[in-house]
Amino acid sequence: MTEAKLKKILATGEGIGIEFKKSQNALPENVFESVCAFLNRIGGDLLLGVKDSGIVVGIEPEKVESIKTDLVNLSNNPNKLDPPFMIFPEVFTLEGKKVIYARVPQSSQVHRSGKYIFDRNADGDFKVTSSAAISRLYQRKSAYFSENKIYPFLQFTDFNESVFRKVRNLIQSHRPDHPWLTISNDELLKSAGLYRRDFETGKAGYTLAAALLFAKDDVLQQIVPAYKTDALLRLKDLDHYDDRREIRTNLIDAYDEIMLFIRAHLPDKFYMEGDIRVDLREKIFREVVANILIHREYTNAFPARLIIQRDSVITENANNPVGHGPIDPDNFNPHPKNPAIVKFFQQLGRAEELGSGIRNIKKYLPLYGNNAQFEFIEHDNFKTVLTIPEIYTELREISSEITSGKMSGKTSGKIIQLILKNKFITIPEMAKEIGVTERTIERNIQSLQRQQILKRVGPAKGGHWEIIKQE
């Protein structure tokens, strides 16, 4: 969120997707009625420190942190919001006054605040009390969001313990004060909305989203037999492939495996954004990978694909489309296909605000390659096409240097190839991979550094290798 976008929200005024709360001294009692209504409808923007009329009154500076903390903690409290849905607000200064902004996404579940279900229309929040209206709300959610499907016989023992450890490490590095770090694994699943009770049918249990995120591989294959992601490299053999990785594991590990494939076959490039050095490959392709995992229709047997070609990277995944045709990054309304999975990836720092992925690709792709272009096409299968004409220029230059004799010996060439795949690789790892001693690796690295082909960036621990482009 930016200040310009906040001003646009203020100018638009309250409506089905915008709510203002005065909130100068404390969190309003009815704030979770609005959060609940947004979750049950199409999502929305919540601004605290603003009158209903759109006039910014601001929050008292000494109260900002306590109100922000209460909003986070109470959104995880089933007495306020059931099932819980954690909200992560941001503090901004508008007209010299402090306001708190929170984006509340559409949820795949039906939520209550206190004893009541709330929905949203242009006039604000309203209670849903009739059985027929409640039934329609459940039907609308279940018909669109397949991640909500309940598996009553899916047990906690069917989940992979190592994934819980990885999730906690990711959350710890992304947000050390996250409430999920203080609760048990089973409570974490419930807090994330991955355990559900259907008030219409009475069924209760872990959901498809829970299985996709945490299930052991053999269990996952029983639940979604057709699920897989194909990562393909097509350079020389355009009819088949030069390298392939078939990924059938949980979404947490699948993300890492696909990113490893990308790091192995695409060059890394860096860009100075102010004083910060940005890894363009990570910036662009983390969005691409997250998209094919979290915005995918998993009841469709069509496998997701990521194909690296000579001048492009193409992804395709099954989709539950809202519209059809090309997406304009400057004029589109993002809709989560799997809100619970999206929310979970956001907590891990692997996804951001809805729509930010497309905007980040638009921002960083031109910096990654000259004349680079992108296209996002929404149909029953969602397709991303990143055209990068010079994608392999660096790799071809390195390859020609090896064959022309600028890099002497097979070991030096193998070292370069390993670094192209993983710039963080260590000398012991190189020695083990190539089958030589560490001293041999060190001598070859010294030779490469003298030839100004290779350099070390940062300390021995925590730094990385960088290939220097040859003129």
Straight-line distance between termini: 42 Å
Give the strand order, joined by hyphens, for the main sheet: 12-11-15-16-19-18-17
User: Count of helical segments?
Assistant: 16
Domains, number: 3
CATH topology of the largest domain: Heat Shock Protein 90
Unreliable sequence segments: 397-408
Keywords:
471 residues; alpha+beta; Methyltransferase, Cobalt-precorrin-4 Transmethylase, Domain 2; Heat Shock Protein 90; Arc Repressor Mutant, subunit A; 3 domains; four-stranded mixed β-sheet; 21 strands; 38% helix; 21% strand; globular
Explain what this protein looks like in three dimensions.
The protein is α+β, with helices and mostly antiparallel strands. It has 3 domains: 1-140, Methyltransferase, Cobalt-precorrin-4 Transmethylase, Domain 2 (2-Layer Sandwich), CATH 3.30.950.30; 229-387, Heat Shock Protein 90, CATH 3.30.565.60; 398-467, Arc Repressor Mutant, subunit A (Orthogonal Bundle), CATH 1.10.10. The chain has helices at residues 3-12, 31-40, 64-75, 131-144, 161-174, 185-191, 208-214, 217-223, 251-265, 280-294, 339-347, 356-368, 393-404, 410-421, 427-434, 438-450, and strands at 18-21, 44-48, 90-94, 97-104, 112-113, 116-121, 124-128, 150-151, 195-197, 204-207, 229-233, 243-247, 270-273, 276-279, 304-308, 312-318, 325-326, 373-378, 381-387, 454-457, 464-467. It has a 7-stranded mixed sheet with strand order 12-11-15-16-19-18-17, with helices on one face. Strands 1-2-4-3 form a 4-stranded mixed sheet. The protein has a 3-stranded antiparallel sheet with strand order 5-6-7. The chain is globular, with a radius of gyration of 25 Å.
